[in-house]
Amino acid sequence: MASSVYLCLLRAVFLVCFVNPLIQGLSEDESVFQNPHHQQEENLTGLPIVTFKWHHVETPYLVIIWVFVAGLAKLSVVELNHHVISVVPESGLLIILGFILGGIVWGADRAQTFKLLPPTFFYYLLPQIILDASYFMPNKLFFSNLGAILIYAIFGTCWNAATVGLSLWGCYEAGVMGNLDIGLLQFLLFGSLIAAVDPVAVIAVFEEVHVNEVLFILVFGESLLNDGVTVVLYNVFDAFVALGGPRIDAAEIFKGIFSFVVVAFGGSFLGIGFAILLSLLTRCTKHIQIIEAGFVFVVGYLAYLTAEMLSLSAILSITFCGICCQKYVNANMDEKSVTTVRHAMKLLANGSETMIFLFLGVTAIDTEIWVWNTGFILLTLLFVFIYRIIGTFLFTWMLNKFRLVPIEVIDQVVMSYGGLRGAVAYGLAALLDEDKIPEKNLMISTTLIVVYFTVILQGITMKPLVQWLKVKRAAHSDLKLIEKLNNRAFDHILAAVEDICGRIGDNWWTRGWNRFEENYISWLLMKPKARKNRDYLFSIFHKLNLEDAINYVSEVRAQTGVIYCTILSFVWFSQLGRYSDCNAIHLLPQHRHKYSRSHFSINQNEDEVQEIFQRTMRSRLESFKSTKMGVNPAKKITKHHKKELTHKVVDLRDISFTWITQL
């Protein structure tokens, strides 16, 4: 394992040390490549066999090289000693590896030629992560805690931005920071960007800690919506800075508050509109399932770019697009398309996350951005940490007065400590206009230090803190069928109690929404076949069949061996999700597959499937009678043992084919 780590690091060093200076040196000689065809015509004495055209592939080649380096970095981090990974979070290790790569680039070029630019981050890396986080959001858990999440995301963000900005301004006026060219509005602008709790960092750290699901959804949901609120607040204060302090009156402040509400809620409703569009598109892709998975990515990205074009919150737009469409899109799409979306989205999100943390480390090795002011930096770290704790306990105290299950003090401590900053804060700091903010580099330097402190130091100490406080961990076991039935029964009982008492509570709203969603929204956005498959008894029947299949595979393992059982298990569990389509599965076609650009289906023989079905059902009925009534079937005496064994295996295959066809 250690040798593979060293090999990966050596490859990365080779790429950055030798390939990067080579391509940089070639790119500097612009006179040679400005008109390559003219240069060839002047010096051409014969037909060239090959020519070197670096300028044709420069940009995509650099992109692919860095993607490859990021992949090697991820591989190196994963292959490290497990004791190191258990102590230092993966995001922190990627930043540290970015320091090393940034130092190598600096040593080769004497300048930082590669940086994490805001357009690259906001247009190409961040949308994929937000779409992945929102699309796979546990909706029931999210909406059941939506009130608390909105309180933390909206009021908590405004609290952190205002208190940090005002406290820094007060310390500056007291002379603690020395001579700086920063006013009150600039401090509030900096407070708004440093208040961004980054979902990328939160996901990376909290998934490794495995806290309980309520605590995770509160912190994760807050960080996801907090980003959108932070960007809106940042734009409002940026407009105030451009307008100038003397020109700001009560009317401008009211317009700023109104703009905050319109941009935030406008982006959210725009995302819901694109979610409806995506659901309707997947409702009509029955005959062209090969492209339906692509609509998820295209429409999600369109939601982000459209909101950005209309000056609405792009992050909130793509967030609510992913949250609201997942239920209907997964029901409408083919099982293969659902699997494709799942794997492709995780691939893009993990790749973007790796690139972000890696370049956060690479960007730090740049002497041009570093401006040091001890008072400003230390006070920022202190105020960010203190006001996060105060705000969490203050708003939780208010929420616990209305929550049926209050948030415990231990969970509040973890939430306070989990306010990790990341690339969103850095991207907003890099967007600052140096003409309006003379101390831009100081703000960028301070933001990077806050990011490194929270991601690396707080990430390292998060797991020991959770263990020391004995925070309730997430349960990895799935609920049993009887537990799900009990939960559903209790929901109906609580709704009935609220009706008897005349109280309109959460269960009343949940029941009303479920009825409205079942009668109208699902009718509009779901295929009729998908609505039929949502039947509760039908889903229970599928679960029972799944358990029956597991038991049957266990019996087959004892009779026919491990190899055939493994094949049977793979076939069963890859196809059980398609239990509603009885005629779409035929596992051993007798003919060669036909090539098609639009379909995944293979040749089928319905007569053969029907014959196997009837023969196997008779066999299962006899087996059922012998088991329940104690009647053993008559055994046939034959001398041909090999043929009998062969027949037995064939019958088992027939049974497996028929079961899958039934399911």
Automatic annotation (TrEMBL):
Residues 81-468 form the Cation/H+ exchanger transmembrane domain. GO terms for cellular component: brush border membrane; early endosome membrane; recycling endosome membrane. One of its GO terms (biological process) is sodium ion import across plasma membrane. It is a multi-pass membrane protein. It catalyses: Na(+)(in) + H(+)(out) = Na(+)(out) + H(+)(in). Pfam families: Na_H_Exchanger. The chain crosses the membrane at residues 61-80, 92-108, 120-137, 149-170, 182-206, 215-237, 257-281, 288-304, 371-397, 442-460. Plasma membrane Na(+)/H(+) antiporter. Exchanges intracellular H(+) ions for extracellular Na(+) in 1:1 stoichiometry, playing a key role in salt and fluid absorption and pH homeostasis. Major apical Na(+)/H(+) exchanger in kidney and intestine playing an important role in renal and intestine Na(+) absorption and blood pressure regulation. This is Sodium/hydrogen exchanger. It comes from Cyprinus carpio carpio. The lineage of its organism: Eukaryota, Metazoa, Chordata, Craniata, Vertebrata.
